[in-house]
Amino acid sequence: MAKDVSDRVGKGVERTGPFTTVSGVPIERLYTPEDIADLDYEKELGDPGQPPYTRGIYPTMYRGKHWTMRQFSGFGTAADTNERFHYLLKHGQDGLSVAFHLPTLMGLDSDDAMSEGEVGKCGVAIDSLADMETLFKGLPLDKISTSMTTNAPATILWSMYLVVAEKQGADWKKLRGTIQNDILKEYIAQKTYIFPPRPSMKLIVDTFEFGSRHVPQWNTISISGYHIREAGSTALQELAFTLYDGIEYIEWARRSGLDVDEFAPRLSFFFNAHNDLFEEIAKYRAARKIWYKIMTERFHCRNPRSAILRFHTQTAGCSLTAQQPYNNIVRTAIQALAAVLGGTQSLHTNSLDETLALPTEHAARIALRTQQILAHESGITNTADPLGGSYFVERLTLDMEKGCWDYFDRLDAMGGMVAAIEQGFPQREIHDASYDYQKAIERKEKIIVGVNEFVMDEEPPIDTLLIDESVTGRQVEQLRKLRETRDNGRVRQTLEALREAAATHNVNMMPSILDCVRAYTTLGEICASLRSVYGVYEEPIF
Amino acid sequence: MSEKIRVIVAKPGLDGHDRGAKVIARAFRDAGFEVIYTGLRQTPEQVVHAALQEDADVVGLSVLSGAHMTLCPRIMDLMKKERLDDVMVVVGGIIPDQDIPKLKECGVAEVFQPGASTEDIVAYVRQNVRKK
Questions:
Q1: Does A122 sit within 8 Å of B16, measured CB to CB?
Q2: Domains of chain B by residue range
Q3: Cβ proximity of A144 and A93 under 8 Å
Q4: How do residues A365-380 score in pLDDT, each as one tens digit?
Q5: Tens digits of per-residue pLDDT, A55-93?
Q6: For testing the chain B interface, which of A435, A447, A539 should be mutated: the one with the most B CBs within 10 Å?
Q7: If one looks up domain B6-128 in CATH, what number appears?
Q8: Which DSSP string corresponds to A94-122?
Q9: What is this model's ipTM?
C-alpha cells in the first residue's frame, strides 16, 4: 500500500488529461517562485488601492464595504416587477437592476406585430413614461441605485428614468446607477442592435457628454464582457474584446471633442464569472491592471479616477444545466466566489432555474442568500486580495495580460473595433471557441455533471415561474388608453423635433429625447423616428 | 435531386442568442448536410418562405425568448398551408417540459432542450428525415 503511493508520486502518474481551464488553456502540474521570478511588486501589482490596481481598487476592499448585491430582475408588467423590487429590497438587496422584455430592448412597443408572444417574457414591458412611473412606484430614486440593462434604446430608457426622478422632485445630481449602453458587444455577441454602428456610437457619446454635465454620479456605460462570454468566448477573448471596446468608446468620444477625463471616471465594466475559479480571478485582476495601463499610457489621463476599472459581475448563465437543476446552486456559489476573490464592485448571482424559465421568488432568494453567505460566513472578506502572491494566480494574471495585448495589436491593425466587427473578426473568434467547447463536451474532455456524466434517467420536475399570458392583453390595453388620453399634438411636435435633431450633425440627442418622454411619446414611436433617420443594422452572415 | 440532407436553421422571435443556432448549423455542416442559416428575427412567414425556396428537408428552429408557443404553432400552420408536411421540423432552446407535448401535437418532430448533444441531434435527423 505504502509502496504504491510512493511509486505513484515517484513516477508522477497522473489522470488522463487534458489539464486545461474551461477556456482550454493548459495548466501546469505545479507553479513555483520561478513562474513569477520577474514579477515586480510595485510595478505589476501594487497594494490594493494603488496603481496599477491589480490587487483591487480600494485599500480596504470588503473591510470597508461589501460589494453591492444587485439581482437583475424584471418580468410581466411594470406593476409585477415593482412588487418584485420591493420584495428584493426587503430581503436585503442593495440596489436595483432592471431586465426589460425583448420588445423594449429592440425599440418596439408591446402592440407591435413583432412583439407577439414576447411581451413580459424575458423582462418587464416598458412602453412609455407611464410604465416607468409604475416600475419605480414607492422607490425614492435619489436614495437607491439602479442599473438598467438596455443598449440600443438606452438614451430613451435613461430619459424615462430621469423624468421619473424629476417628477419625484429628486435632484439629477444625486442619482446613482448605470445604463449598460454598450452597443459594440451587441454587434459582437448578444445581437440586440437597432441602428448601424455610426449613429449608435454617436448616441453613446451623447450620453457621456450629457451625463458628465447633468447626472455626474451616473455610470453612462457598462462595457460588457458578460454576453461575449455567454456567446461562447474564452475568458481571454471576453477580457480582450471588452477592454478593446472600452478603447473604441474613448476614441469616438475624443474624436467628437470630449476630454478623456470628462467622462472616463464614469465608465464601468461588466464581466462574467464562469466555472474555472482561478482563471476567472486572474481575468479580473488582469483587467484592472491593463485598464490602468491603457488609460495612463494610451490616453494620458490626468484624473487618477479615469484609470480605475470598476466592475459588476454576473455568474455564468451558460454554465447552468437544465439537468439536476439544484446543482446550479453550487456552480453559482463557486462563480460568485471567483468574482469576490477577484474584487468585484457588485454582483448578480443566477438562480438555479434559469435554464428553464425566469426565476421563481424562491430560487431568486437562494441566489441572493448565496452572496450573503459569502459576505458574512466565508471569511473571504477579511483581507484584500487574499490570493495575491500565489505563484499560480500571478502567473495566470500575467498570461491573461499578455494575451490581451496580442489581441489589441490585431484589433489596432484592423482599424479598431467597429472595423473588426464589420469584418466579422470577434464574431468568428467567439463562434470557433463555442464550437470547440461543445465538441470538447461531446468528447468528454470536459465533464458537465448531470449532462455528460453522472446522468440521472428520471428527474423530478421543479416548479418554474410561468408568465401569465394575460400580460400581453393588459399591457396592450394600457398602451391603447395612453394613446387616447395623452396630448397627441405635443407627441407629434416632440417627434418632429427629434427627427430634426437626429438629422443635424453634432446635436446632442438627449434633450429632444427627454422632451419626447415627457410628452408620453412611446419608446416604439421614438425608435421608429430615429430609424427613419439612422437606418437599421443588418448583420452580415459570417 | 440532391443526395445531401438540406437543413434550414432559423431563429424566429426577437432574441439574439444565436450561439446554439450557429453551433448546430456548423455541426450539421460537419455531418455533411447542406445548411442554410437564415439569421436573426425571422417572422414565421420568412422561415416558411425559406423552407419552400430552399427545398428543405428539415427546418431547425432555435428559440430562447419564451415565445415558442406563439411562434412554432404559427410556423407549423404555414408549413401545412404551403404543403410542406413532409418537411421535418425540430425545435431547440429554452423549452419547458410541459410545452413539449403541445409542440409535438402541432407537428414538431422533436424538441431538444439545453444539454442536448450535437451528435444526438445529427443522428436524430439522419434517422428520421424523409429525403425528397
A1: no
A2: 6-128
A3: no
A4: 999 999 999 999 999 9
A5: 999 999 999 999 999 888 899 999 999 998 998 889 888
A6: A435
A7: 3.40.50.280
A8: -SEEEEBPHHHHTT--TTSGGGTTTTTTS
A9: 0.92
